[in-house]
Amino acid sequence: MSASAAAGAAVPLLGGGGTAQAAGARGTDGRAAGARGTVTHRGIRPDDPDGRAPLGTPRRGFRYEMSYNASDLSSPWKNEEDHSPDAAATLDLLEREYGPGAHLTQLYFYLWEYATTDIPQSALDNIEKVFAGLRRKKYAAVLRFVYDDGVREGRRYTVQHIQRHIAQLAPLVRRNRDVVAVWQAGFLGAWGEWHGSYYQHENYPEAVTEIMTTLVDALPPGMHTQVRYAEKRNMIQNEAILDRVGFHNDYMTLGEGEWDYYVPANPQWKTYLDVTTDRMVDGEMPWDKGQSEDPYAWSKVIPGVPTARRLQTLRYDSLSIVHNATVTVPAWRTTDMTEAEAREALLPVSDGYFRDRSGKAVPRSQFEYLRDHLGYRVEVREARHTLAGGRLDAEVDVVNRGFAPPKHPRPVRLVLLDAEGRTVASADTGADWRKWRPQGRAETTDDHGEPPVSTVRGTLTLPEVPAGTYRLGLALPDPDFDGAHLAVRCANATVAWVDGVNVVAEVRVGGRG
């Protein structure tokens, strides 16, 4: 089923493999005398239409990287000289250079000139222009503001300077929160990684607490921030903000590299396990030697299956495909991964993912598997409904076959659409989709069986409508912004996608005609 299915199109309910059972009698009261139905659904198989295409679900998955000097929208780096001040054009370039499949980008803004002054309005306007480019491309940012570039002498900013800048930037981020997935802590040290700042604020719990409290207080509702090191997070003395503070691992090598601390041998491993359960997690590999002459460059292939196990264990939401792009990422693209390998590695196996419609085994590339399972991956399993006396009671069973639970709050609604895709009835279910848990962590003693089934329940009160066939849908919209690209699409071939609604069943409504 094409990702471009539009509202109002005549979209079939069952895309090939779903099964429906219904019973009931048509009434004459403009609604129904009684009807019951059950529809079972299946996942996306490789030989389905668009079965190997990325599922563009928001705020999770692979990402690119782009950097701007806020003063003039030039890039601070020689290898980004071809990047444009027009962020949409830069994203077009990144898609060509690194291949499609990402809907996120790391976005650095360097504030070197303004480290000890206010950020001028011209620079704030430049930042807003970049956000507008992301919006045109339907991307979201893993956002970081930085003073020190690791090349020039570190700037002499204070806690008060950082707090002032957060106050200036907060309204801008709030206005553009539809294109910001996470606002990383940043600011301190080289590249905003919290090491090597001039005054070493990152080593003082009082300074860390002040900065992080100011940042979390500035975050839009539901948004998280991230720090690189568990030791720095542990310095935060304000426990009230910790539920919004996750991690970013900026040197993922599965423990072979000196600067990858996200490993079982690290004394902070339990902290990483605990925090990543429900806070946002981002990662990147080192640059490889084809990309960088830096001494920390890494040119050994980081193997795909162990990578998947680590990403799943630490509940990663996003990962760069710009880093190690001439060594590891090409290996992932050309190396097969089978269902047997995934199961042996205690990794999630999405329904039908490694099987064609005849049941024959079909390998996927490691790249595909990682792309499709980073973050959440919601599958509908079954939908049930009972219609009587203008009341539609519905239940929808879902499972999460991704690496991580959803981490941003959003409404969970049941809706009824007419043949043109218009909503004729809707009900907020009150369900918290962040509780749709994935299966146990691969590198722990968790239960590694199937992920738990969650059931969404709701009742829709139907207005008097013409007789006909209507469509019951599960909607997971953005809480603040309209748009199908900001809603969550379920990973099913048998679920039609109609203007941001996952259609899970047909309902025959009787009427006077």
Describe the 3D structure.
It comes from Streptomyces boluensis. Residues 1-59, 437-457 are annotated as: Disordered. Residues 1-13, 20-41 have a biased composition (Low complexity). Residues 58-230 form the DUF4874 domain. By secondary structure, the protein is α/β, with parallel strands linked by helices. It has 2 domains: 19-52 and 376-509, no CATH class; 61-334, Alpha-Beta Barrel (TIM Barrel), CATH 3.20.20.80. Helix content is 20%, strand content 24%. It contains 10 helices and 21 strands. Strands 3, 4, 5, 6, 7, 8, 9, 10 and 11 form a 9-stranded parallel β-sheet that branches. A 5-stranded antiparallel β-sheet has the order 1-2-14-15-18, with no helix packed on it. The chain has a 5-stranded antiparallel β-sheet with strand order 17-16-19-21-20, with no helix packed on it.
What proportion strand? 15-25%
Q: Which percent range fits the helix content? A: 10-25%
Give the CATH architecture of the largest domain: Alpha-Beta Barrel
Number of domains: 2
Beta strand count: 21
Q: How many angstroms does the end-to-end distance come to?
A: 32 Å
The CATH topology name of the largest domain reads TIM Barrel
Classified in CATH, the superfamily of the largest domain is Glycosidases
Global morphology: globular
Task: Identify the CATH class of the largest domain.
Answer: Alpha Beta
pLDDT average, as an integer?
93
Report the biggest beta sheet as strand number plus sense, adding barrel if it closes.
9 strands, parallel
